[in-house]
């Protein structure tokens, strides 16, 4: 699939052929869903925790005598039914991560790229660099390109001025090629790749 390369000022800068084995697949929603679920589960902190009855700092004495009161039999004020008692079956700190085969993860990335290509939501920029770190200038540049909700993927090293000027713009994300992932691709309307990013993807999947 051939696509026109643009410069940041909106001019044509040649064409590039996107490999069909990376950008020409028929996207499968089940694979994308599994990958997004894996990503979100992996980044969950899992630090929620409550105190059980064994962890409550409260007297261990019997509340009142066993017989003769006409009340129910109770032996501990730490029981969950009492105010100030422990939490029954409450959450504990744990990892929410689960396994997903590496081949499925690699396939999901190709399907996400293909999904963007199929809807015409991929833009290739010759070079993601800026002369100064001015957010105002970058906003006008993106408006000229028609980009209001986009993920920018640069080379292995991002241009400092470009990343600094773009990081405060709402709905704009900038990542190096090492950070490309399915969730960020799908959550933005447009995927913007630099020429270096396209070459790195083709090298990665060949």
TrEMBL record:
Alphabetically list the UniProt keywords. Answer: Ribonucleoprotein, Ribosomal protein, RNA-binding, rRNA-binding
Stated name of the protein:
Large ribosomal subunit protein uL4
Task: Please spell out the taxonomic lineage of the organism that makes this protein.
Answer: Bacteria, Pseudomonadati, Pseudomonadota, Alphaproteobacteria, Hyphomicrobiales
> What does the UniProt function comment say about this protein?
Forms part of the polypeptide exit tunnel. One of the primary rRNA binding proteins, this protein initially binds near the 5'-end of the 23S rRNA. It is important during the early stages of 50S assembly. It makes multiple contacts with different domains of the 23S rRNA in the assembled 50S subunit and ribosome.
Instruction: Indicate the quaternary assembly.
Output: Part of the 50S ribosomal subunit.
Q: Which GO terms describe its biological process?
A: translation
Any GO MF annotation of the entry: rRNA binding
Q: What SUPFAM superfamilies is this protein classified in?
A: Ribosomal protein L4
**Ranges of compositional bias, category Basic residues:** 65-76
Question: What's in the GO CC field?
Answer: ribonucleoprotein complex; ribosome
Which Pfam family, an example, fits this chain?
Ribosomal_L4
Q: Which PANTHER family match?
A: 50S RIBOSOMAL PROTEIN L4 (PTHR10746), LARGE RIBOSOMAL SUBUNIT PROTEIN UL4M (PTHR10746:SF6)
Q: Which domain of life is it from?
A: Bacteria
Question: Region (Disordered): which ranges?
Answer: 65-99
Q: Which family does it belong to?
A: Belongs to the universal ribosomal protein uL4 family.
